[in-house]
Amino acid sequence: MNIYMVYKKYNREFIAYAKSITRNEDRALDLVQEAYVSALEREDIFIAMNEYQIKGWFFRVIKNKNIDNIRRENRVLLLEKDEILGTVENFEEEIAIKDLLDKLPKKNREVVNLRYNMLLNSREIGEILGIPASTVRSWLSASMKMLKNNL
User: What is the CATH number that goes with domain 3-79?
Assistant: First the structure.
């Protein structure tokens, strides 16, 4: 089954699914379009797949593209705000943590924020900051030592 046949047969289902997870028609259409672009880039993998596997592949790609977009938006918002803390139950605890984090150098604060608030791995943090993943791990380790010493 080629991409055009998939489009003719399942496009409405893909759009409906994308709308259900985004709650936004424009975003849904963009996600489906991105899925078709991915499919065209990897058209050779569909040779070994049956129709249902192809359909499943599209649903998975749409879901993953949506997750990627949400993460990207959150990273941009986070980097714009330069927020270090998420939600902390206790106000005094939040102030204490913020004070500790403010003692860190800016690069270390950013790495800690991206790792523990955004739950990104060292490779993803490295891509955002333009540094190797090994450097991210080194900065995280140094940051944790600094935080422990300041307690």
Answer: 1.10.1740
